[in-house]
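Build the 3D complex.
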Amino acid sequence: MSENTLAPSQLDQRDASWYVDKLVQILMFVGGISAIIFIIGIFVFITKEGLGFLFEGFSFTEFFGSINWRPTSANPTYGALALIVGTASVTGVAMLVAIPFSLGAAVYISEFATGRTKETLKVLVELLAAIPSVVWGFIGMSIMNEFIIEVFDVPIGLNVLNAGIILGLMAAPIMTTIAEDALKAVPDRYREAAEAMGATRWQIIRQVIMPAAKNGLVSAVLLGVGRGFGETMAVLMASGHAINIPTSPFDSVRALTATIAAELGETAQGSEHYGALFALGILLFIITFIINLAADLVVRGIRKK
Amino acid sequence: MVASETRTKVLEVDNLSISYGAKTAMSGLNLDVYENEIFGIIGPANSGKTSFLRAINRMDAFDTNMKVSGSLRFMGTEVSAWRNAYALRRQIGVVFPLPVGLPMSIYDNVAFAAKLRGVKGKAAIDEVVERCLTRAALWDEVKDRLDSLGSQLSGGQQQRLTIARALSQEPTLLMLDEFSIAVDPVTTMRIEDVLKELKKEMTILLVTNLVQQAERLADRTALFLSGSLIEIGETGALFEGQTQDQRTKDYLEGRFG
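Done.
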């Protein structure tokens, strides 16, 4: 028998590399599906905790139609409308701040900056994204608060404007990074072709590059919106945390997330108030899920092309 | 060489050198290109052909590494003296080796350059689009889907779209850089026929890898080799073997290297 020929029994033998291969496969599989398991787990948990409230104390018209969030009063009411409007208004102002800043920064980094300027800016933007939200909240409470009182001559500086600006500055770095990736993905030959035709820098950016990167830019904005809805600490600190339907940017508001963070520790587990906070959680979960899904669908649109 | 001194010179190149950092791409180039001629440039890869084209429409402005020295006059004016490089580029149409359908509709691809040069009104732009696509031998294939994306056309169609786009600039000088690389032979022949027609209206600078293409199209042909000009001559004469330099003869006969 030659050395290279394997006996049938040997063919059936599993060696070390076979086991390693199987082990790695299993580990990868667990790693891969764990994200799904966690998402489902979180959803099940939140729903379970909120379910009791949804079936008993919950009134659809009160929850979405009333601004009276009075969980601790003798006759508690759970109207989340002011909280929803609060979150939405802060996010709206945040986007007004973040979209011009982040798109401008992304265009500058991708199309104008070169060499060391470009590298330095990219590192700085990423550094900016890593600042903890409580630090942003601190800036909102101390610096922005006084600044707004001074400049606009209003009694309270903790309001929609403050939280919106802080949140916008927080969201801008991540949006910049994503938007810059989208612009970078536009092939250089498009730029060269348009340049050779005599288009100016701005004409190239406006008419060739932005349309080509449209989907990436839209998903950058949507992720910024998602960030705005989900952010808790900075909004809690900068918004004034007062239940109110804002009529001007100088009104204080309260956000969905901040309400949960501030009140959950003081409720008895399983109480009606506890369930109501989880109902807010379900609402947030659904909103962020829809925004992320929309971002994902937009990004898929890129690949189709 | 024929007595062409009376003809208008579109390009006058005098001791032109181009370098990228320490690497020299072209040195001591002297040549003139006349109005309404097809001027062929042949030569192997890395001989400085594309760098020469880039110097003409000032693409060095976007490549800080690229240094151009010497004199290069377009329509009698030094290109480096044009304060508005965009206006200079609008007069020079460029077709790249690989087709570049811009990520916009077929219509907009062609209308883009026309709008840049100030054509206004839907009817006028419609007219430019149809005329340029027709001349680039693409109109019949795309006239029913002008709204679809230019980048979704086949390679050969995209290259003709690129040519239509260059034509919509109504350029004084049309520069084609190995345009037939991504185009099938039949389409290549159609485009070559178009170029022969276009010669009546503009000057064409044809950089090509295909010696036979230069023979078919060019009035005069120049051979570039490793960053220097070896020889310029009437194409017919060169291909009949009347060459000054043995390297030209070798290159034309495919016995190079």
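The first strand of chain B starts at residue 9 and ends at 20.
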